[in-house]
Amino acid sequence: MEIATVIAQEIRAKIKATTELSASAGISYNKFLAKMASGQNKPDGQFVITPKNGPAFVEQLPIKKFHGFGPATAEKMHRLGIETRADLKEQTLEFLVEHFGKSGPYFYGIARGIDNRQVKADRVRKSVAAEDTSSEDIHSFEAAREGLQPLIEKVWSYCEANEISAKTVTLKVKYADFPDYPEQDGCGTFANDR
To answer: Is the dihedral of CA 59, 118, 36, 49 positive or negative?
Structure first.
């Protein structure tokens, strides 16, 4: 994983030099865990999940935090009594196929740390984002607008330079108690954490 860590650092540095945007990176032994790792040290860091610590990392993780589990899937799992990765691992392949169809084998595998999907390097980009963590709580509309302006300009400049348009612009806000409000794909996901 040392080589992957160095490569991730080089990619993040190249992104910063080329676009002036921060990037986070996740390094692991499969695609699912690498994506989970990428969310750990945002907005400008990286995180490694090794084969040794992979199962423990996701063992008690709530299903709603799993990458690729949308609100509908998470809700259905909750109705079936599946709250964590440990609960998911207790289910049989037959049970998961019965309730989730073609996604059942994928859910069965990731609960066991298995994800054989290939990384596709040339896929179409689905979103552009910029985020920032405010050093102080924001309580007024004017202060929020002022904090958002650099993020808007950064994303807008990138979209213009790359001739990208969007159907959706999403603002993600995290409050002091850190509830997460889901992002949507689209050019212009702006976030301001406080």
So the answer is: positive
